[in-house]
Amino acid sequence: MNEQISRLFEFRRLEDRTKSGSYSKVVSVCSGKGGTGKTFFSLNFAYQLSRNNKKVLIVDLDLNFSNLHLLLNHTTEKPLSNFFLHKYTLHEIIFKYTDNLHFIFGESGLSGQPKIGKDLVDYFFMQLDKIAPRYDIIILDSAAGSDEATLQQLSRSDYNIVVASPEPTAVMDAYVLFKMIVENSDHYKNFLVVNKTENKDDGESAYQNLSTAVRHFLKSEITLLGTIASDRNVYKSILEQDILMKTYPNSLAALEISELTRRFLKITQMANNNQSLIFTLF
Ligand SMILES: Nc1ncnc2c1ncn2[C@@H]1O[C@H](COP(=O)(O)OP(=O)(O)OP(=O)(O)O)[C@@H](O)[C@H]1O
Ligand SMILES: [Mg+2]
User: Fold this and answer.
1) Does residue 27 carry a pLDDT above 90?
2) Which of 162, 238, 257 to mutate to test the pocket of ligand 1 (most atoms within 8 A of CB)?
3) The whole model's pTM is what?
4) Is residue 181 part of a domain?
5) Per-residue pLDDT at 90
6) Ligand 1, closest atom to CA 62?
7) What is the DSSP letter of 167?
8) Any bridge partners for residue 57, and if so which?
9) Could you read off the pLDDT of 145-203 as tens digits, one per residue?
């Protein structure tokens, strides 16, 4: 699409949202490589946002390998595939964990899962718009990699948080994902979380390497949201099928997630203020 036209579309989209009082709120958590900690992070980040008085919906969009429900030891009768098969609306498959934290779960290994392509992703976002006004933030836990459906999801999200581990191969995979996001989106609000770090320095240097490459080759920017230590308490919380922030709130990883959540809220609050300022000026 011609760059000016696509900017105009983006502008109109933001204008419509601002008029309806609904700010940017859809956040995809994604990664190049699998197993970097997306699901663990999504759950704990969502929980921490809800503790900060935000009304949060978290959706397991990793349809083939859904495991958000496993982290909470929850059995779901109405997985997301039911929505794609037109059996239920999104509203009907929401699980209310607390007043402020709601879930839409998937289910792994179901036969007869619908094949999700770009069109179904668009349909999902159309339906998501209907329930979005009830939430402050909607988190989409994604499949690893960059298949067509995932890229469509990332390009339709307001923010993408790429979760990478600090080793060079994972940083390289994160770079490739960023490249695809930049090539497929007309907006570039991308964050990085470096997870499973041995110390602050390896997280920081992973970010520096990635951001230098992104700036140089892609002429784009990424913002480091924070680093999360490799912490045995994470493993324990997963074994216990509970939320780290709840069971081990003083662990290093939990403290870092809480810091990172504060930073996210600060940055997005500023972005939303600027958004409304721009539109009151026009
Ligand atoms: N900060 C951490 N410290 C220690 N272990 C961690 C940390 N983060 C994640 N893990 C471990 O990594 C494993 C994978 O995490 P998770 O399932 O969240 O990754 P994922 O990116 O969602 O994987 P997939 O790509 O398969 O969806 C967890 O089972 C956990 O044991
Ligand atoms: Mg996962």
Assistant:
1) yes
2) 238
3) 0.90
4) yes
5) 96
6) 27
7) S
8) 102, 138
9) 989 999 999 999 999 999 999 999 999 999 999 999 988 876 668 999 999 999 989 99
**Structural contact between residues 151 and 32, judged by C-beta atoms closer than 8 angstroms:** no
Residue 263: inside a domain, yes or no? Answer: yes
Q: Which two tokens stand for residue 147?
A: 């298949």
Share of residues in the chain with pLDDT > 70 (%): 85
3-class state of residue 163 by DSSP: strand
Separation of alpha carbons 266 and 144, rounded Å: 27
Q: Is residue 18 part of a domain?
A: no
- For a ligand 1 pocket test, name from 29, 38, 39, 40 the mutation site with the most ligand atoms within 8 angstroms of its C-beta: 40
For residue 36, the ligand closest to its alpha carbon is 1
Q: Could you list the residue range(s) of the whole structural domain that residue 106 is in?
A: 25-281
Residues in the chain: 282
Read off the CATH number of the domain in which 160 is found.
Answer: 3.40.50.300
134 pLDDT band, cuts 50/70/90, is very high
Q: Is there a domain that residue 13 lies in? A: no
Question: DSSP string of 81-118?
Answer: HHHHTTSS-TGGG-EESSSSEEEE---TT-TTPPPP-H
The pLDDT of residue 21 is 47
CA 103 to ligand 2 centroid distance, Å? 15
Find the 276 Cα to ligand 2 centroid distance in Å.
Answer: 34
Alpha-carbon torsion 108, 68, 145, 124, what sign?
positive
Over the chain, what is the mean pLDDT?
88
Token pair for 131: 């329930």
Pocket test for ligand 1, best of 233, 234, 239 (most atoms within 8 A of CB): 234
Ligand 1 site, residue 44, Cβ cutoff 6 A:
no
The tally of domains found in the chain comes to: 1
